[in-house]
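Data availability excerpt. The first of two example chains:
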Amino acid sequence: EDAAHDFGLAIKEDPSFALARYKLAIAAWWGGGDIDRVQIMEAGLPTIERLPERWQKVYRAYIHVEKGEAEQAWALLNEVLESSDALPDAYELRGEVRFHYTRYRDYQAMRSDFERALELDPSFKLVFYHLMDGYAYLDDLEAAERLMARYRDEDPDDRVIVFGEARIAAARRDFEEA
C-alpha cells in the first residue's frame, strides 16, 4: 500500500515516468490500491521510449498479462531473457505466466524463474511470495524452510514472512498453525 501511494505521487510529479506506472500497477496488483492497472500502464505507453528497450518489452508484456494475452507476453519476456538475463522483473513476470496460464504451466521452470529473480534482487519480496507457493506445489518444504530462514531474521513481522510461514504449515497439513 505504501509503495502504491509513493508510485502514485511519483506519477503526479512526472506523468511521463513510465517505470513508476509499471511499479504502481504491480503494487496495486498485490493489494496496494483499487486502480485500473491496464489503464495506468497504457497511459504510460507514449513515454516508454524513455526506458531501455528491455524495460519497454517487460512493460508491454505486463500489459499483455493483465489483458490475458499470454502468448504476446511470453514472446516479449523470452526476447528480453535471451538478450539479457540481468532483469529480475522479466524472470518474475515469466514465472507469473508459468503459474497462471495452463498452456505455460511448469512448476519446476517457474521455480527456476523465481529463484533467478530473487538471486538478482534479494529484496524482491513479490518473488518470495510466489516462490513459497512453488516450493509447496513441488513438495519441497526443505527449500521453503531455507528461504524462510534467509528472510525471517530481517523482519519476522513482515506480512510476506508471515504468509510464508503459514504456507509451509499448510503444506505440512498443520492447519491449526497455518
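And the second chain:
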Amino acid sequence: PSFFELTVAMAFEYFALQKVDIAVVETGLGGRLDSTNILSPVLSIITNISFDHMQLLGNTLPEIASEKAGIIKPGIPVVIGEYTADTKKVFEEKAATTGSSVYYAQDIYQVSNKDTTAQKLECDVTDTTNNCTEHFILDLPGVYQTKNLCSVLAAEKILMEQGWNIPENAEKTGLANTRKLTGLRGRWETIAQNPAIITDVGHNEEG
C-alpha cells in the first residue's frame, strides 16, 4: 500500500472510533480507483475537471471526467461544481447507470457583487430555484472560492433535504472562519504586505 492508502485506512479507523457525525473525505487522485472510493457516502461532489495527472487519468477532459465520475454511487446524489458540454455528458451517462440524481451548482446558483481584500471575500449568491439572494463572507479570499461556495450551498441543500440540521448561523460562521477552524493554508493567502507575498497551492492551469 502507498503512504496515501495507509493514511486513508488510519483516518477511516479514527473516524469510526470517534463515531463522527459526518466526515468530509476528498479523493487523492481521480476517483474510480482511489482508495477513498470504498466509502458509501450520503453525497458525492465533483468540483471541476481540468488537465491533471494525465499519465493516470487520461489525455482528454471526458476521459478525466470518467475517472472522477467513478465516485458516483447507486442512488446517491451528486453535486457537479462545474461542467462543459463534453464532461456533462459523462456525468449524465454515469448517473443514469447508477440511478443517481445530479445537481449542477453553476446552474442553481449565480454569484454577484464580488469584493475581495487580502483577508476575505464577500459576495451575493442567488438561488435560481427560488430567486432568494444571500450575502456571504469567506476568509478564503481567492475569487475562485465563489465556485466552491456554490458547490457547498448545493451540497448543504441536499443534506438538509435528507434531514440534516444545518442552522444558518453555523453555515455563516463556518464559511467566514474556514481557515481559522480547519488550519487550511495556502489558498491565495497573503503572508506579507511589503513586499506583497501571496501563496497558493494550485499546481495546474485551473488551480
